[in-house]
Design goal:
Pfam families: Phage_CI_repr. GO terms for molecular function: DNA binding. InterPro entries: Cro/C1-type_HTH (IPR001387), Lambda_DNA-bd_dom_sf (IPR010982), Phage_CI_N (IPR010744). This is Helix-turn-helix domain-containing protein. By secondary structure, the chain is mainly alpha-helical. It has 2 domains: about 10-75, lambda repressor-like DNA-binding domains (434 Repressor (Amino-terminal Domain)); about 85-120. The chain has helices at about 10-25, 30-35, 40-45, 55-65, 70-75, 85-95, 100-120. The chain is elongated, with a radius of gyration of 17 Å.
């Protein structure tokens, strides 16, 4: 597994502090505004009351590109979704197309369950 520039053992509150320092951000409200969540939500992360959902991690990585989704996910105690190359995506779609309707529905249900399990970790 590749290493990143993140500090080992850095939790989400610490990474938010570093993000504020690196981007010159003075308030939780500014982070909240940039990722379209409430300031109270960011405050729960800062005070270690809650961890962010995957959607918030994705939004943070997009709004603050010096911080990767993988780095933010690790700090939140989550695993980031794996990379999906266009070739891999095409192979998966081709496999899916060869399944029966019932198999496609079953596979979709399984994939949703896996995704939802990752979101609650």
């Amino acid at each position: 597994m590749e290493t990143t520039d993140e500090t080992p053992g850095e939790d989400f509150a610490q990474i938010l502090k570093r993000l504020k320092d690196e981007y010159g951000i003075r308030s939780d409200s500014e982070i909240a505004r940039r990722i379209d969540v409430s300031p109270a939500t960011v405050n729960t992360w800062v005070h270690r009351k809650r961890r962010p959902r995957d959607e918030a991690i994705r939004a943070l990585a997009a709004a603050f590109p010096r911080f990767s989704r993988e780095e933010l996910s690790a700090a939140a105690g989550r695993q980031a979704p794996g990379p999906l190359s266009p070739d891999a995506e095409q192979r998966i779609i081709e496999l899916f197309r060869e399944l029966t309707k019932d198999q496609q529905e079953f596979t979709e249900t399984q994939l949703r369950a896996l995704r939802d399990a990752n979101r609650t970790r």
